[in-house]
Write a structure and sequence with these properties.
By secondary structure, this protein is of the alpha/beta class. It has helices spanning 2-6, 26-32, 35-53, 105-117, 141-154, 172-183, 189-201, 203-215, 225-243, 249-271, 279-294, 305-312, 321-332; strands at residues 13-15, 58-64, 82-86, 122-126, 158-161, 335-340, 343-346, 353-361, 367-374, 379-382, 385-390, 396-404, 411-421, 430-436.
């Protein structure tokens, strides 16, 4: 670490967080008593070393899961260390100090204990936009306001949350409200929201948009799928009404994106309601997959392991590195592509079905994307290649006839779609599952 940080004077904080699902070995816990004590030993030693080797660099640690409680006094965190309090499993149906939200009481107590016993910088690391929400529209605005009030009175020094550009528009107001409260925790949040709605959507649509944010204020982890499906259906109708009330093209674009968010959320909830193994469940999963891919580059939804789990059920483990890498590769590419539907069923020698090959402009500079399709022996793909021009948020597609010969092998197979730019630059390939009977 020292050579790296030592050559980069702009680095003033070294973030020393353990892996997300880490565990200390039994012998370590036997020696130090609990994970928070063991982590303090490591972090305090690092802070002590940096004071000598890199006196301009501070250490940042996390109070999270097994270390959410502060360490014992004998292992107190060095006051020069920045502590991030990360209440991962809390609920967002109310602020920390809401008397009716008992699920948060333990976190409020732990945060109070940290502030009482720790003299250094204590900051919040919040989850007002969660990966496990799968980019569903969730806007717990009153919870955010109440949390900041509680934390500022407690003496917390700072607040932060993680954000993703992939679904930025879905959470735009959550992130903007949080940012202004970080600078001014005495802000009148209701007045700020009124100003945001009028500036963003126009005076006439502002009242209508308050209905949308009321319908989407609920933490989806605490509400059943049927209620969420109803809420998201009504929220979509509100957005369509607001679109007819604004004269701004920019506002209509944002309303379109928010509407697409409710479009994605509805099949997501239907997946949780339909019987296992049913044709209706398979249709909902396919609709969900297509909508996620269709909207992944327009600020609406971020594909991740959680969305993949929703699409495939339990077949995709949470720690699937391949899913994570594919997401990274697609967002780092100038263009991308996919095939829909994601599962084709064929009879050997039977009628052909249609596969749609879609190309998308990721960096919004415009591209010609050349694609090729290949599969197992006995598969007929017509055409097996093509060229698509994409610009901005406008995708382009080709239709491919997919059939088999009578000699094709029965079973599960895959069609591989390769994508390249006109200059030959290879893009991330995509797969389509194929069942031959």
């Amino acid at each position: 670490m020292s050579p790296f940080c030592g050559t980069r004077p702009e680095i003033t904080v070294f973030d020393c967080w353990p892996p997300d699902v880490s565990r200390f070995q039994k012998e370590i816990l036997d020696r130090y008593g609990k994970p928070a004590n063991a982590e303090s030993v490591v972090v305090n030693k690092l802070a002590e070393t940096l004071r000598t080797e890199l006196p301009g660099v501070r250490v940042e640690r996390i109070a999270y899961n097994s270390t959410i409680q502060p360490p014992d006094p004998d292992y107190a965190s060095d006051p020069a260390v920045i502590v991030d309090f990360a209440p991962y499993s809390r609920t967002y149906d109310g602020p920390f100090d809401a008397p009716g939200v008992t699920a948060n009481a333990g976190f409020a107590k732990a945060l109070t204990a940290w502030r009482t016993g720790f003299r250094g910088s204590l900051a919040m690391y919040e989850y007002y936009r969660r990966y496990r929400w799968r980019s569903q529209p969730v806007h717990p605005l009153s919870t955010i306001t109440g949390d900041v009030r509680f934390e500022s009175h407690l003496g917390v020094n700072g607040i932060g949350m993680y954000c993703e550009p992939g679904d930025w528009i879905t959470y735009e107001h959550v992130q903007s409200l949080f940012a202004v409260l970080a600078w001014d925790n005495g802000l009148d949040a209701a007045s700020y929201t009124d100003g945001y709605l009028q500036a963003r959507f126009g005076l006439r649509a502002a009242a209508t948009m308050r209905e949308y944010y009321e319908l989407t204020r609920t933490d989806p982890d605490t509400v059943g799928a049927a209620e969420l499906l109803d809420r998201y259906g009504r929220a979509g109708a509100v957005l369509r009404r607001a679109a007819g009330q604004t004269g701004s093209a920019a506002a209509r674009t944002v309303l379109d994106r928010l509407g697409r968010g409710t479009d994605v959320a509805r099949p997501d909830q239907r997946i949780g309601l339909l019987p296992a193994g049913s044709a209706e469940l398979n249709a909902a999963r396919e609709a969900y997959r297509t909508l996620v891919l269709e909207n992944r580059f327009n600020g609406v939804v971020l594909p991740n392991v959680q969305t993949c789990l929703r699409r495939y059920g339990t077949d995709t483990p949470y720690d699937n590195a391949g899913v994570r890498q594919e997401v990274v590769d697609n967002y780092a590419s100038p263009a991308a592509g996919y095939g829909t539907p994601g599962l084709l069923a064929l009879e050997r020698g039977g009628p052909a079905v249609t596969l749609t090959v879609v190309a998308q402009d990721v960096d919004f500079t415009g591209h010609t994307v050349r694609w090729t399709a290949s599969g197992p022996d006995g598969l007929r793909l017509t055409p097996a290649s093509g060229s698509l021009r994409v610009t901005g948020t406008r995708s382009a597609s080709d239709r491919v006839s997919v059939g088999t010969t009578a000699a094709a092998s029965a079973g599960s197979h895959r069609i591989t779609l390769e994508f390249r730019l006109a200059d030959g630059t290879r893009l991330t390939p995509a797969q389509v599952d194929l069942t031959v009977e």
